[in-house]
Amino acid sequence: MATLTLRRKLAVLSDAAKYDASCASSGSEKRSSAGTKGIGSTEGSGICHSYAPDGRCISLLKILLTNFCVYDCVYCVNRSSSNVERARFSVDEVVRLTLDFYKRNYIEGLFLSSGIIRSPDYTMEQLVRVARSLRQDHLFAGYLHLKVIPNAAPELLAEAGRWADRLSTNIEMPTDAGLETLAPEKKPSEIRTAMARLRGKLDEATPDKAARAKPEKFAPAGQSTQMIVGADSADDHAILNRAAGLYTGYKLRRVYYSAFSPIPDASSRLPLRPPPLMREHRLYQADWLIRFYGFDVPEIMAGGQDGLLDLAVDPKLAWALKNRARFPLDVNRADREMLLRVPGLGTKSIDRIVATRRHHRLRLADVARISGSIDKVRPFIEAADWTPGGLTDDARLRARLAPPPEQMSLF
Ligand code: SF4
């Protein structure tokens, strides 16, 4: 096999990592590096954005250690039967790249995943070696996100959590049946066991006020997972049900939804077209409602149809349009929990509404100022100087609030 340059490996292994939906915005970012030479100086290969535990948006070098893989997951471009160009970094190469990019201020951290080579233990050990070297040998203080290889030894997971800020184990498919069909070498029980181990370690690392000794640090940014949307027949109801179960069962910080990307030579068992990206977006919105707005899955799905979310309007608006009898709500009196159900009002706006109304009665202009936009809110609230009259029940309301369809860009 021809020896690849480090630059070529970076191109291959950052491209191969783009299907890992760990980022708020996947894909690379162009960087200007006038006057400098070297790897990544023009393309910014593999640099993506993610959110740190404190909510800051940070740049990460997102790469695979290797895209060789002994597994043959049908949905994955890196599967053993795929005809893609293969590459593999050494541990030292990943360490060096990370440090170089970090010193040049291109990145604030590393997201590292890998195809499975030799065995889960061997692969996980390689990932851990990168993290250990960065932290111990180079005192790297940047953000580290490591993928967990299911079925790797518990000691390796424990050490991964010692060095990494975040760990993630991909659940992959919304249902066990989907995983068994499309990723025959992966076992749902092994993925759940890995997540449960991480949860156990995260629980142990939670400080106990009564205890004197500080617990050992373990992945302070918690664990997350990824689900592929649209490769199997699971509907949005099944996807959100699984996500809700994962949040409670494994104390997940985040479920990432990744719209399935058809592979040109993929088996005919898979759909030939990707699901609309809007489906992925609506799932993220619904997930947000579950985590921060007190909605449960059946309520959200009641806003959609036949197990799918409404693609034309966001899930909170879809729910409100089907539950108009609950509106309008008086912004000067309604409970915070009910205000969370008003389309167009976010948690911060609601906190400001609740704080402000202690001092004076809110008028529509106050709500508009606080929320930043009033069009979506107006039909669902009453204020000191406003009542929507027949607007809430107007048959044309949905059409008026649905954003006009956009022409997709070709470039
Ligand atoms: S284990 Fe499956 S999903 Fe992961 S890299 Fe290998 S083929 Fe792809």
TrEMBL record:
This is Radical SAM protein. Pfam families: Radical_SAM. It comes from Devosia epidermidihirudinis. Coiled coil: none annotated. Its cofactor is [4Fe-4S] cluster. Residues 64-201 form the Radical SAM core domain. InterPro entries: Aldolase_TIM, DNA_rSAM_put, Endo/Exo/Phosphatase_dom_1, rSAM, rSAM_sf, RuvA_2-like. GO terms for molecular function: catalytic activity; iron-sulfur cluster binding; metal ion binding. It comes from the Bacteria.
